[in-house]
Amino acid sequence: MVIGILSYRPVSRQVTKEESMLKKAAVALGHKARVFRASRCQLVYDGLGERVLYNGKKFPKIDVLIPRASIVSNVDIRLSLVKQFQLMNVPVVNEYMSIAKAKNKLRTQQILHSLGLPTLRTVVIENYTTLSDAIDKVGGAPVILKDPFGSYGSGVIIAESKRAARSVLDAIWCNGYSHKIMMVQEYVEESGGRDTRVFVIGDKAIAAMERSAQAEEFRSNVELGGVTSAVEVSDEYAQIAVKSAKALGLEVAGVDIIETKDGPAVLEVNGNPGFKALEEITGVDVATPIIEHALNKVAGEV
Which one, 42, 67, 258, 263, has least CB within 10 Å? Predict the structure, then answer.
């Protein structure tokens, strides 16, 4: 089979390590694989059926597509390319709507909370007048202020007091911010800046790593220097992670879980999870089961 890997990286930059690992895994399994650049695709609507051109020519035949949607702005518009392949009846892992839900932290919160999955206390605000009450409702300062569309740790801010929270919002909202919506979320001091990334493929949690924030940093993201270590996936964490991924319709996901005094809670669900660090830390092959899942989808087995 021919496996397409859709990279959203700028053409001026090399493909990611994960994209190269997926290609290598596909070839090792006896299949062909190619990395395509999203910016070189053109969507065509001319009454002749949904089509995608690549560098102005007919898109090469592929049997399945794995998008690597590393995008943080204009998400819905840019994901239209993924939807186009679905309209062309190309199996896609993950699909458009699932990625879009995961990219929107507010939508993720809504879905998980409505299904009774454990999440952190959160209040969504659109103006200053409700800020003080929102902080009280999530347990008081310090609090986390979270942009619903942030990624890789960006758009996540800690405010040590109500006055600091007001100052932060003033700086953000008065600086040409594209939307005035902010998630006010409880700060879990007892976690010590640690959380667990559980990697889910299909119905299984295949590996996990603990991430710890560096000194003077509260975010544990690897991109921000978070220190990682391999951990065993407990049954409880595995169930939470798989249910969270399924709630968003994700076939491949990275689910971040934080331990609170009341038990584990989902911090975030990533529909475009990196796995280079996870493979290095745990020794678990992640790329191969992603390719195998994609092949099983083509065969109608998932």
Answer: 263
